[in-house]
Amino acid sequence: MAAKTKNSARGLSLNLRGFRLPRAVYITICVLPAVLTALFYVLRMSTGVMDWAVSSISAPVRGFLGMLSSVYPFSLAEVFCTAAVVWLFYYIFKTASLTSRRSGKLKIISKRLLTVVVVALYVWSLYCWLWNIGYFATGFAEKNGLYGEGITTAELAAVTRLFADNANELAPLVERDENGRFIEDHRRILDASAEIYENLSEQLPSLDGRVYRPKSMMFSWLMSRMGYTGIYFALTGEANININAPGFLMPATIAHELAHQLGVFAEDEANLVAVLACVTSENTVYEYAGYLMGLMRLLSALTIEDPEAGLEISESLSDLVVGDWQHNFDYWQSQKTVNTGVGVIDTALTAVTETVSDAVDSVYDSFLRSNDQELGIKSYGAYLNLLVEYFLYVI
């Protein structure tokens, strides 16, 4: 019986090895992602269709993915991206090896290139229907009746003063070392994130949803080199946080990425929601981060519109607030250069870092613009009108 079982298994193995997909199935597999992608680009101009797709496809699928990924303490997004890069390099090496040993090089390259294109199209089509559709659906501000129709300089100054006063008041209440440096533990900040939207969701019901603990990024150093503090990855439903960046703004970054998790797609609206969530959270560390994040943008705008008013508020900031701002500036400046102690190596690596950072910014800017975000990366600062109006007329 044992010999018979072994022979049967061998026969099954040979049959499986010789299995070939029917041509129609093979063509369908190759064409399907292209069809899904084309369908997105055809339908994205219909707000009604996109609204339906967000509520019926994107939101439930991303929520399910977020629930699954929350089981793991590490970032599945990083695992996915790392595996993709490793696979791509292996695939290129394998292709080069095959073409060097076999005839019909053009046929081999064509088939293997088709595989890469099909895989890329599957990823892109999924991303389009899970995330990009949100850029063409009804926005958060419109859903909640918030319209940034324009503000006066006096209104901008009033809200900037409010943010400065609150930042000054909260700055000494967060944990610091003997030099006044912010030292709140990032794990406690991440743990507290589950409750930060509870109060705001009572005012804005569209934010009433399940959020999952953000993930600390293993490649935080790389994110810093590229100039990013966090990223929401729709294919795993995860909010990923750069834990190497200055900690006092981490709560605001977390709130921003969780806003995306809750279905706030546009960057300017996610910034607005992040500030509102932080300052209404009743968590001192989050409140401070929210007021500080808003103050940075508000004061910058006010200084342009009314330099005298901007200077007056700047001079009113406490040493702790100014110290945090200086730390933030120094940190990001340090990420623009590489210091190994060897001049030639430092120069070369700094140039590479700058080139990669610029390339990433350019790609992301193009991505935002291609999805109807006309300001591109600048959309991160376009929320000021809404922020001022909200604090003047809503709260």
Give your account of this protein's structure:
With 395 residues, this protein is mostly helical. The chain folds into two domains: 19-136, no CATH class; 145-393, no CATH class. It is 67% helix and 3% strand. It has a three-stranded mixed β-sheet. Helix 12 packs across helix 13 (284-305). The N and C termini lie far apart (80 Å). Mean pLDDT is 84; it is low at 1-16, 363-368 and 375-381.
Short description:
The protein is mainly α and 395 residues long.
Keywords:
395 residues, mainly alpha, three-stranded mixed beta sheet, 3 strands, 67% helix, 3% strand, globular, disordered N terminus
Instruction: Tell me the count of domains.
Output: 2
Widest β-sheet, arrangement of strands: 1-3-2
What is the SS-derived class? mainly alpha
Radius of gyration, in angstroms, nearest whole number = 25 Å
Describe the largest sheet: 3 strands, mixed
Broad shape? globular
Q: In sequence order, what are the helices and strands, one letter per element?
A: HHHHHHHHHEHEEHHHHHHH
Share of helical residues: 55-70%
Tell me, rounded to a whole number, the average pLDDT.
Answer: 84
Question: Low-confidence spans: pLDDT under 50, at least 5 residues?
Answer: 1-16, 363-368, 375-381
Q: Treating each run of at least 4 consecutive H or I residues as one helix, how many helices?
A: 17
Estimated share of beta-strand residues: under 5%
Separation of termini?
Answer: 80 Å
Count the strands?
3
